[in-house]
Amino acid sequence: MTSSVREFFPRERSYPQLWRTAKFKAFNYHVLERLYLVQKTEFVRARTRMPKKVYKDLRALNDLRNALAHSFFPENRRVKSGWNGADIFSRTGFDQFLDDMNGASGFFLQQMYGASRRKKIENFVGPNLLR
Predict the structure, then answer these.
(1) Could you give the maximum distance between any two Cα atoms of the chain, in Å?
(2) Terminus of the chain with fewer CB atoms < 10 Å: N or C?
(3) Closest CA to 103 of 44, 58, 45
(4) Distances (CA, A) of 35 to 14, 31, 41, 43, 128
């Protein structure tokens, strides 16, 4: 989202300076706070080339979040909450989930910091997560 923020608010001011403006506060409220994850994903996807895997993982994350958030006892659901076919409450399912989310994080970190800082990002998330 940082690149999208800078698309609307160029680097003339720092973030602390932007927070003092009504326009930035309105942007933050209406775009960053009120939009749901899927809507934010579509917003970023309309402005950036997003790998299909990252897009699908974010959609699956939203589905998983909704299943868990709207169940009083998610572990007792008739249809088990899963990730890529594995039960999310199992070690295998959680490890797969964590790997996929690290890959999505790597994509967004690369978007934020650019290709010139790829080595720093690799040190942060691991070299095999940047695809």
Answers:
(1) 54
(2) C
(3) 58
(4) 24, 6, 10, 9, 31
pLDDT band at 48 (very low <50, low <70, confident <90, very high): confident
| Contact in structure between 94 and 106 (CB atoms under 8 Å) | no
Residue 118: predicted pLDDT: 55
pLDDT tens digits, 90-116: 899 999 999 999 989 888 888 877 765
* Cα→Cα distances 112→4, 5, 68, Å: 10, 11, 30
- Residue 68: Cβ-neighbour burial (10 angstroms; 0-12, 13-18, 19+): middle
**Four-residue CA torsion sign, 28, 4, 2, 24:** negative
- Reported as type and span, the H/E element at residue 109 is helix 91-113
Smallest CA-to-CA distance from 41 within 28, 23, 26, 60 is with 60
pTM of the model: 0.70
